[in-house]
Amino acid sequence: MPIKIVHKGSSNKNQTGAESSFLPAKPIGEAATTITVSPPFIDKISIVVKPANDADAENIHKALWTAFLDKADFQLASAQATNGYHAARLINIKSTPARPLIQYRRSEPGKAERIRLEFNPRKLGGEGLTELAAWMDSILPDGWEYVVTNGHVTRIDIAVDVVGVRVENFLCLPKQGITSTVWGVNGQVQTITLGKKGDQTSIYNVKAKRLNKKQGWSGKTKIRVERRLKNPTFYGFSKLSELANPFSGLVMTFALPPPAADMKFWEWRIFGDSVQVRGLAAALALLPKERRAKYRAHLKLYAQSWWNPEALWEGWSKIVGASRLTEFKP
Q1: Mind listing the pLDDT tens digit for each residue in 117-157?
Q2: DSSP string of 240-260?
Q3: What span, in angstroms and rounded, lies between the C-alpha atoms of 319 and 313?
Q4: Separation between Cα atoms, residue 100 and residue 117, nearest integer Å
Q5: Cβ(216)–Cβ(210) under 8 Å?
Q6: Is the pLDDT of residue 40 over 60?
Q7: C-alpha distances in angstroms, 190 versus 20, 64, 90, 203, 259?
Q8: Cα(274)–Cα(271) distance, rounded to whole angstroms?
Q9: What's the pTM?
Q10: What is the end-to-end Cα distance of the chain in Å, rounded?
Q11: DSSP string spanning 120-154?
């Protein structure tokens, strides 16, 4: 059930993990609308499992190649998925169309070096996770427990969905020194990418993306704010609930607020034009250091009330628990 995100100075700590909504004050030049922000969710996770000892390495190799003989349940993956690995398969899950990817590399003949799993937990679902864990029982000692205790997260995408705004209705103010790319269609911003591969933020119109792929869409426009983390600092899969807030430091502001009283109007207007062409991060990077700091401070005064990274992340450990990803027998 949606809850209300209150203004700074108030607390909603008892509402963690739930979808939140907020009827903001009337934005500049626009009518007020209800904005809904979902709890964080994992959009993709990659887990690398290495054998704990030589005996395990030999047993995993034998079990895996036996499993791979079943071409109906372990379907050949693309040639690209095999790059850097000796084999790659898509695991046939009965309860969902989702197909987890499993990649295998050996250290020497007859010995496994690593297994890599990649999947979207939401698409897999609870039943799908149970099926995936059952397949691991046939491949790894102790099955999914072996994944939890020996697995390391090499990539994780954490996202939230926002309903009631469009990408062009706000600006994203990231940490300083981050590169940015803005993609648009017919003058409308559809995607903002911040940072380079490895640690990247992507803000995009989910509806537009689905329609571009001819997947169809019904309902309101949805914006996804997604953080892609490569080799996150918590690393061990069993410590997934300890992941630091990936949205921290990300500020959403009005687009574009009026200038401060001590700012030159024409300079601020030129800056606004630059933002439209290059995106906020790139436009700020072109400014002299002193003016850049001044503009950043001014923009923070107009932070969007619906964006509260701290409140979003309060329920993360409960979200991980509910996912059953780190349970020995999901």
Answers
A1: 999 999 999 999 999 999 999 999 999 999 999 999 999 99
A2: GGG---TTTT-EEEESSPPPP
A3: 10
A4: 7
A5: yes
A6: yes
A7: 23, 43, 31, 8, 26
A8: 5
A9: 0.83
A10: 26
A11: -HHHHHHHHHHHHHHHHHTTSTTTHHHHHHHEEEE
